[in-house]
Known about the structure:
The chain is an alpha/beta fold. Helices cover about 40% and strands about 15% of the residues. The strands form 2 sheets. Strands 3-2-1-4-7-5-8-10 form an 8-stranded mixed beta sheet, with helices on both faces. The protein has a two-stranded parallel sheet with strand order 6-9.
Amino acid sequence: MTNTLVIPALHPDEQLLALVEEMRAISPDMQIVIVDDGSGPAYGQIFDQLKFMYDCILCRHPENYGKGAAIKTGIGHMSRRYPSCTGYITADADGQHRPGDILKVAKALQQHPDSLILGTRDFCREQVPFKSRWGNRITSGVFRLITGMNCPDTQTGLRGIPAQHVELALEAPGERFEYEMNFLLAAAQNRVPILAVPISTVYLEGNRSSHFRPVRDSARIYGSILKNLTRPLLLHRRRKIQKIAVPETPAAASPRHEEKAAV
């Protein structure tokens, strides 16, 4: 079994259906796990479509636990049920990650099975909202201060996580948006190689569909960063995260397990 796509979803709309439909068209053998993070009965029809029409594995939270918790639920479920999985691709449900870019990250993970792959956006583009551009600049600067590594996109939700680092992903603290920064810091401090793959920079309607709460979630992220600032730096040599070019061709398909799970 090869890579699994994990998508945390809260109050999804047709963007998620369109993403999964296209993924099924260009990579029919990829396992897709959707984690319903407490969306409620009003969204049941969408999740039923994902499960029965598009053959997705569906995990459910009875209430909203947060994006980080949903990612850990999806990865944890698949690592236990399908231990032969070689890696996990995480992507957002709001349509901001293109299927072609998901395949680029998946292919990079296959080529570099020991590395954390980051789908990296270009924040110099005009369509990037002001708060996103400056938020990333701040977190990238603090990440460099803590780790000595230059990371151009610390906030990307499109990532490739090798199977050998699953425990690190599951043990990283945080249940909401702060989880992604915590995991990135944990990877850097544990000397996991980190590679950047350029992806499309997409913000639909000024990022209006995002569930990110600027005050509360920013406080969580920067609170986590401040905790790390009090710890000894584990990386003393400054180094830049390597950017790698991945051709936009689908990864080779492999047989899927027929068994499905619903939790």
